[in-house]
Amino acid sequence: MRLLLVEDEKRLSDALVYILKKHKYLVDAAYDGEDGEDMACTEIYDLIILDRMLPKKEGIDILRNIRSRGIKTPVLFLTARDTIENRVEGLDAGADDYLVKPFSTEELLARVRALSRRQGEILMDKSLHIGNVTLDPSHCEASIGEKISIKLTLKECQLLELLMKNKGRVITKEQILDRVWGFDIDANFNNVEIYVHYLRKKLDDGAATIRIATIRGIGYSLEEKSNV
Question: Global pTM?
């Protein structure tokens, strides 16, 4: 599970990243509101932990902006403001839960687990179907027809999900890097090309009726094969 933590207090952020990673979460951190919103808008995260008081842009404005764009990623709102009005404002802006500072790490982890379960229940109903291929993102599995089941790696699953959700559209390599690899500075276009190759092989070996077309110099597009 991949989390985005938007917290400007560096020592607190570093401590939370350490704790969350220790509990097997993948975590990216942002230290101001502008970077936090940019990262949230990539839609690569399963959960966002968002501080309210941030430099450059406040958390409440980030929350309203991402919800206005249709981004439904669960948000755990962190706030030092403990009035009923502040809580109502956060929830009305689109927060799924809130946590008042100072808080215990045990409570933070419990809230993250609760939102993770809720997100998992939502994802269970989000299988994708094109041609003879069905993708179950929650289990990183694809089925081809009624008999063939393919186990996908996390990156393969995220790549196929992105392409299936945008069938017929050209997805650039830059967009794939942002959505699948996020802010991993070591990732580059070679990673994209390698995983497209892996995914094509699995689809072709299973006689899938969809294919990943290369749009030279730009990126890729998912299409149904015209001869089936």
Answer: 0.62
